[in-house]
Amino acid sequence: MFGSKARRSAFEREVRIEIEILRKLHGEAAAQVAREKADRPSNRTARRRVLEEAARQLNNDPAPKRTLASRLFG
Fold it and tell me: Vertex 34, ends 20 and 22: CA angle to 5°?
């Protein structure tokens, strides 16, 4: 129920929702707004990660390579 696949799917769902909201509110500037929001010091780690991933996807940047440690620990 709370395995890595469940967490990953919840994370991906949050990113998709964030992208939709940013595009609706900011149009072409959505990626820049996502990056600015991610850089706010008041963000919690999970929120920052969602915004960073949304900015990455909005910029059509390639996904980062996953290291062995990230695959093992999360």
Answer: 25
